[in-house]
Amino acid sequence: MNEQAPSVEQRFAESTPATLGNWARHDTTWMLGLFGTAIGAGTLFLPINAGLGGFWPLLVLAVLAFPMTYFAHRGLTRFVLSGRTGGDITEVVKEHFGSTAGTSITVLYFFAIFPILLIYSVALTNTVSSFIEHQLHLQPPPRAMLSFVLILGLLAIVRCGEQATVKVMSLLVYPFIVALALLGLYLVPHWTGGILDSATQVPPASAFLHTLWLAIPVMVFSFNHSPIISAFAVDQKRRYGDHADERSGQILRRAHLLMVVMVLFFVFSCVLTLSSAQLAEAKAQNLSILSYLANHFSNPTIAFAAPLIAFVAIAKSFLGHYIGASEGLKGIIAKTGARPGAKALDRVVAGLMLVVCWVVATLNPSILGMIESLGGPILAVLLFLMPMYAIRRVPSMRKYSGAASNVFVVVVGLVALTSVVYGLLG
């Protein structure tokens, strides 16, 4: 198996920044890689979670989806690009905020992403096991064996290097987009108005704002791809040098337009087909929208395709989150004073990830959901608030100050943060 790609410092030092030039194939690969990290299995629950609030909150969320996603991730990308050495996020936070703060943020960054990776490990095992049992009508292998094979297979892709990983993610995006589009189109003849039954009743301002406050994190985290932003920014700086901000902004805009248009079409197609009561029923049964639709229409094709679509969604998101989690773990190891070689460090990190993901996927501990929830506030701070704070405090980022979008990002970040904390305490 090929060794993993060289470290960030090596890649940056060995490359000569190109001029901006025309849109290239690797730009498309990154665009789809960002899409692949963001749009995972959670998308299959989004029509239920977002639609339960009613028509008007969903409409507002749909309008806010692109600016919330684009401005926040552009801010985090610019933060990583602002480093002098072309290092990843763990090095940039140390450069800007000092060693102590840098270590703390690196640890928080890792523990915000790693639980999501564990969740995907469990979900991947559950999905494949269920598919073998219910769709193929075979006896699934022991859970320990199945989870080991699945996780080892994904880590084999990662060991081929960052560029190969992003390439595989981008390839997995194509069937996922086709599946979402076909499902959305399949539902069009079945539109009954669905969620529009709540459109005639505009809720009181207090109730509307409360519903919106609780729903914003659902949309924020549905499009979150912060775990891969650091690697994305480093690669843009390596390729484009001083033009990295401009080209990364173009890639982010196209990626976010693609994910927002595709996902919202799918969401609205679902909520125009199912009534509010049916969405509530799906929520109570803890079913994905595909599973509920398969039962609703008694359609064996959807029932067969649902776990395959979920598998693709989970696999590509696992790869994207692995890039971020491994980056954080390498940063933590570096801050302990250990200085292993790049190849040795890659092997150690991959081995640790394999063992922990395999054990968790095998045991499926009930506490995992709570641990994932605790990462929500950390992600809100790192994605929305830290880059905006840096614009005020870091000289190399002050050129971005004064934009109205900065205020928007801070407001959305505070709304998401307080809503997530309220949900945890409630």
UniProtKB/TrEMBL annotation:
It comes from the Bacteria. It is found in: Cell inner membrane. The keyword Cell inner membrane applies. GO terms for molecular function: symporter activity. One of its GO terms (cellular component) is plasma membrane. It catalyses: L-serine(in) + H(+)(in) = L-serine(out) + H(+)(out). One of its GO terms (biological process) is amino acid transport. It is a multi-pass membrane protein. This is Serine/threonine transporter. The chain crosses the membrane at residues 30-48, 54-72, 107-132, 144-161, 168-188, 208-234, 255-280, 300-323, 344-361, 367-391, 403-425. Keywords: Amino-acid transport, Cell inner membrane, Cell membrane, Membrane, Symport, Transmembrane, Transmembrane helix, Transport. The keyword Thylakoid does not apply.
